[in-house]
Amino acid sequence: MSKVKFHIILCTLLMVWNFSLAQQITNYDVNDGLPSNHVYRLTQDSNGFIWIATDKGLVRYNGDRFQNYTTREGLPINDIWGINHTPDGKIWYFSKSPKLGYIEQNKVYSFPSVNETEVLNPVVQNQSGNEITISGGAQTYGLSSDKQWKVIEKKDEDRQRMATIIHPEVLQISSDEARDSLFVIGNDKKVLKRLPKDHTAFFSSIRGQLNDSLVYWMNARGFVFINLNNLTVHKREFQTEIDRNELRFARFHLINNQIQLTGQNFLGILDEQLRVESLMDIPTELNFHFACMDREETIWLATFSNGIFKFPKHKKNIRYSLTNEKIGQLNEVGDDLVASVYDLGFYKYNTEAQAFQPFIEEDGYILAASEVPEIGTNFYLTGRKVISETTNGIQSLVNGEDGETVNALARRLVYLDGFLYGNFSGGVNKIDPVSLQVVRSYPMVGVYSLTTFRSELYVGSPNGLKVLRNDELEAVSFADELFDRPILSLNNVGDSELIITTDGYGAYVTDLSSIQLLPGSDYLSVQDSYSKDGSIWLATDEGVWKYVWNNGSYQKTAEINETDGLPTRNINAISMVGNSLVLGTDNGAAVLPSEIAAGSSIIDLYFEKATNGNIDLFEDSEFMYRNDNNVNITIESIDFSDSVEPTVYQYKLLPGQDEWIQTTSKSLNFSNLAPAAYQLQIKSGDIEKTLTFEILPLWWQKAWVRILGMIVLALIIIGLIIYGTRYFQKKQTRRLVQEKRLSELQLSALRSQMNPHFVFNSLAAIQYYINNNELEKSESYLVKFSKLIRRYFELSKEHQISVKEEVTLLNNYLEIEKLRFKDKLDFDINIDAAISADTEMIPSMLLQPIVENAVNHGIFNKEQEGKIEIRFESLNGRGIKVEIEDDGVGYVNTTRKSREKARSSNVISERLFFLNQSERWNINMSRREAHPGATNPGNICIFEIKNRS
């Protein structure tokens, strides 16, 4: 690179940096989770994590959370000043310590010197592939197979060793006693090459091996590389390479297979010829001493007192102006773009400086700038003034009263047929352009915008589009349908189309005969729009949305928000200068290329934690089945974007879940998994990861035991069927089919389907207590259960039951379930005083299945204690309303809906149908979430029961 070219780039970068530094740079310090603001180095590993070496520990950063490693996690010392990563996933840490080692799969490993009293001093670190050696003083150490740091013995006794090499053909680099020559020594101790040397560079303390072929020496003035594969020498001076006499804190850094050179206020990369390509000079006020560029071209800076700084690639192309000031509107006035800046006045955009500069200073509300070429005047409207600009200069024409916040003339002006028209708080004014006197007012509340289109005045109101005709504001309809959305802005696309933006209903394009919603903009608040060359940009509360005309319609092609470098996603105004978009926000202006690429988001997904009780699935992916067989998974992502939206994941657990389930939760919990080999798949975008584990069956769960049991059970069932068939053949001589009783017979059949699920669970619970020698509980459980079952059988012939009896049954049932749940379940039953519980009747067995679902699918899947509330309320003598509410995981969030639950839901639906067909009952049932938005939204089921008889 020529010096002239370098200076041009340097000056431009310095200007850009200082112009928008606050917006581009993100600072992280102890308040964000760093253990210390004293940072030595940073690097990025092969997975994408940023690693930070500090004087208070080592830190891993995924874009959301700083995970600190200190002596608490196993580090031998907290003052870590060097880090390296190898392809096998290890993060090596270096410091003056009796032990050194690496972090692998989230665990710290440290290894001592073979000499137990020795303190290792890894001034030099050499790396080749996965192998690491360290040097301090005259000794070089390597990690032996028995995990101890051992001295690598000097093998060329005839010469002084300068560097120990990790290479299949080169043993070391040595010097003679006179130190006037360097020798590359092969493994056979023969000289492979003799090299003349520069004493200053070669005897510098900064040296090392970066990879399998490159060894380097460095000082403040330059560096030398030796390529061990071809024995070529590359000597570079900073004066020639980067136009600097010296580079303080100069370091080489191998990251993402790229050699980077860093130092105070400097970051560069080396090309294939090992020459420096300058990236950026950084202002000295940041006190930066080390930097690296990650795979997404985000630059990370380390300081000794202010933590670290992040400078994303996608923010380099964005210019910021009027930081922290509110820009309400952007208006084109002639060849100028004028910004309305609250409490400051009007600013004009300077193309060369790429910034807004003061034009008219005013305080308070700054409304709009309007160009009226028909009368040769530009108007600048504020809350108290109307200011004009003509060839005679700038003057204030109308002044509001003291304390008046909105002028009564106009918030924006347009010209039509010899008059000015302006919107104000109470409607639209028709204004004489000479005297600025109001000729006529057209009342209408909330007019935010107006424009001239096809020689007519169109007005945007809170209830749709209006047009001025015959001195009246008339509503505009499209295809005989009234458009009544609250309009925020109107913008022309020449004489062909009109862009209408709304408050909360998106943006529309119309040619006045038809109207089209821009796809995906539903429910957006769109403050402003801009169109050019078949493209439309929207300023919304979700950032900037871009649409392009394609195949007869507009299609969305991009979304730009703070992830891509905008100061905020709530955009007030939008315009264009050349090929740059100019945005006005509550936090200043942003200027960016119209074809800006979206910033990077998720780099990788990973499983942070996976456990079954106290079993770590990363260490032991096979484990035996047990009763509380819950698997808990924590997933994380590596995402260095500035997005405030939670990451959306999809997951499915195979076998069992064939469809992807979407979630923003980082914690996944799977309960009561049966013995099987499982695959948990997660994905976000194109990134997909899989975790495998296997639950081993107990002896009674093995296949041969189950097959044998099924054969025995089948024989018993066949015997019962034969016996039952013969018995009923003897007792039953004929079958009476009565259409009138069809509904009642079907209801009886449905009632019989509701009992087995509860019976099975209860018997299983009794068996559990017996197996655990809890005889007193099992006896109590059995007594309650037998009484309840007996009463069920007694009621099986009854079609209706009193409220009192139903409450008694539900109370007994829930008491049994409470015993089974070990006090995890609580319940409450309330009866309206207006209900006569002894005489008021309801259909039998109607409520119990819903209560059972609440227990087994709501409370059972919840980790904490749950509660069920049952309320009987009078419908003013017209019947009874019953509400069954639980605070469980909710119907939608149930991780696995069992076949029994689906069958129970079908049975309830069918039963309600036949009850309503019986001409005795009129029953309505509904269900919804009890607490929408909560972690455990619960469920509430409501019955309205009316007796027709």
Describe it:
The protein contains ten helices and 74 strands. The protein is flat and about 120 Å long. Helix 7 (775-795) runs antiparallel to helix 8 (803-820). Mean pLDDT is 84; it is low at 1-20, 734-743 and 745-754. The strands form 19 sheets. It has a five-stranded mixed beta sheet with strand order 61-67-66-63-64, with no helix packed on it. Strand 49 and strand 50 form a beta hairpin. The chain is α+β, with helices and mostly antiparallel strands.
Averaging pLDDT over every residue, what do you get?
A: 84
Q: Could you name the ranges where pLDDT drops below 50 across 5 or more consecutive residues? A: 1-20, 734-743, 745-754
What percentage of amino acids are in beta strands? 35-45%
Strand order of the largest sheet: 61-67-66-63-64
Number of helices, counting only DSSP H or I runs of 4 residues or more:
10
Rg calculated over all Cα atoms: 39 Å
Helical residue percent band: 10-25%
Largest sheet: 5 strands, mixed
State the gist of this model.
The protein is α+β, with helices and mostly antiparallel strands and 949 residues long.
Chart the SSEs and their pairings.
Elements (H helix, E strand, L loop, with lengths): L2 H22 L1 E3 L10 E6 L5 E5 L2 E5 L4 E4 L12 E4 L5 E4 L4 E6 L2 E6 L11 E5 L2 E6 L2 E5 L5 E3 L8 E5 L5 E6 L6 E5 L4 E5 L3 H4 L3 E4 L4 E5 L3 E6 L4 E6 H5 L8 E5 L2 E6 L2 E5 L5 E6 L6 E6 L5 E5 L4 E4 L7 E3 L5 E7 L2 E6 L3 E6 L4 E7 L4 E7 L4 E6 L2 E6 L2 E7 L13 E4 L2 E6 L2 E5 L6 E6 L5 E5 L2 E6 L2 E6 L2 E4 L1 E2 L2 E2 L4 E7 L3 E6 L4 E4 L4 E3 L8 E7 L2 E6 L2 E8 L2 E8 L10 E7 L2 E6 L2 E6 L8 E11 L2 E2 L5 E3 L6 E9 L9 E6 L6 E3 L3 E4 L5 E9 L2 E10 L6 H29 L10 H12 L2 H16 L3 H21 L4 E3 H18 L4 E7 L9 E3 L4 H12 L6 E9 ...
Parallel strand pairs: 61-67, 69-71
Antiparallel strand pairs: 1-28, 2-3, 3-4, 4-5, 6-7, 7-8, 8-9, 10-11, 11-12, 12-13, 14-15, 15-16, 16-17, 18-19, 19-20, 20-21, 22-23, 23-24, 24-25, 26-27, 27-28, 29-58, 30-31, 31-32, 32-33, 34-35, 35-36, 36-37, 38-39, 39-40, 40-41, 42-43, 43-44, 44-45, 46-47, 48-49, 49-50, 50-51, 52-53, 53-54, ...
Helix pairs in contact: 5-10, 6-7, 7-8
